[in-house]
Specification:
By secondary structure, the chain is mostly helical. It has a domain of about 120 residues. Helix content is about 85%, strand content about 0%. It contains three helices and no strands. α1 crosses α2 and α2 runs antiparallel to α3.
């Protein structure tokens, strides 16, 4: 701190002493002009400005540089995070594709099983319907035979035909059935 005060005192006192010269008028030349004193004065002024302003400017640019470095690091971190998320998304996509293939294969297997079950049940139903049809046809056949026999007995046989032998009844029934 003392060094700073001494420097400031020298900076202000030295130019005053240098400028305090006599009132004599001389021929102006480079050697007897105040050019060197002005250069010295400018040098002191520039040094003082540098001394006062250089540190804050350096600090500003160091801070700005650090901010830019931090921003670059954040951007790189976000970029890396994005790459990691992309990689994870690709892995999830591959897993989803594999799972979709498994689901499709499972659905084909289930569809095949369902088709086999439906074919089996329809086959059993057809067999059942055929049996039912056969039974119904037998019942209807018996009804037709019974109706034919009843009609034959009611219409064809008269009291005079009661003494008919069995061969005649068979022939009459055969005629009606045919």
């Amino acid at each position: 701190m003392k060094l700073n005060k001494i420097t400031l005192v020298i900076a202000f006192v030295l130019p005053v002493l240098a400028m305090a010269s006599g009132t004599e008028h001389h021929e102006v030349s480079m050697s007897n002009s105040d050019f060197f004193y002005r250069v010295l004065n400018f040098g002191i002024f520039a040094g003082l400005i540098y001394y006062l302003v250089a540190s804050p400017i350096k600090d500003f640019f160091k801070g700005r540089s650090a901010d830019i470095d931090n921003q670059i690091k954040e951007i790189e971190a976000k970029l890396q995070e994005s790459k990691n998320e992309e990689k994870l998304a690709q892995e999830n996509l591959e897993k989803a594709k594999k799972r979709a293939k498994e689901i499709i294969a499972d659905s084909h297997d289930e569809a095949k099983i369902l088709v086999d079950n439906i074919v089996k049940k329809n086959g059993e139903l057809l067999i059942s319907l055929e049996k039912h049809l056969d039974e119904k046809m037998e019942v209807e056949k018996k009804k037709v035979v019974k109706a034919t026999i009843t009609e034959l007995l009611e219409n064809s046989i008269e009291n005079s035909d009661i003494a008919i032998d069995s061969s005649k009844v068979v022939s009459l029934v055969s005629k009606k059935v045919a």
